Fold:
Amino acid sequence: DRWGGILPAVFTLMKLATFDDWTATMEPVLSVQPVWGIIFLLMYVLLVPFTLFPLMTAILTQQSVQVAESDASRRERERQKKMKKAKGDLAAVLRSIDADGDGDISKEELKSLWNSKGGDRDKDKQRDFLRQLGTCEEIE
Structure:
């Protein structure tokens, strides 16, 4: 019996919502209550599959979009943190290259840095930093 208890009835209603064997499912109802059975069937079929399922899909989609936005926001915060660190590193390197401390880096200061002998870790680090920026071609 498909309607003999709560669980069988819920299972039967789910089968109706997915249009699985709905003619055989509704036959016992229509034989007992033909008018109300048809009204129930039409209302149920119009309400559940065409309203409830799209609503469930919309909720799941909304949750997925929120997770994606949260992930994008987290990545943007990480990117900004890296940029802030890179700006600090750049400022420190540029201050250390400015030998006379006037706030400007002259071509002579860059040449001095570039032509200095190896072995000085700070100068080696500064040269590597400039290489990464792609500014070495004009100095050499």
Notes: Residues 33 and 81 are 69 Å apart (CA to CA). The chain has a mean pLDDT of 83. The first helix runs from residue 6 to 17. The chain is about 80% helix and 0% strand.
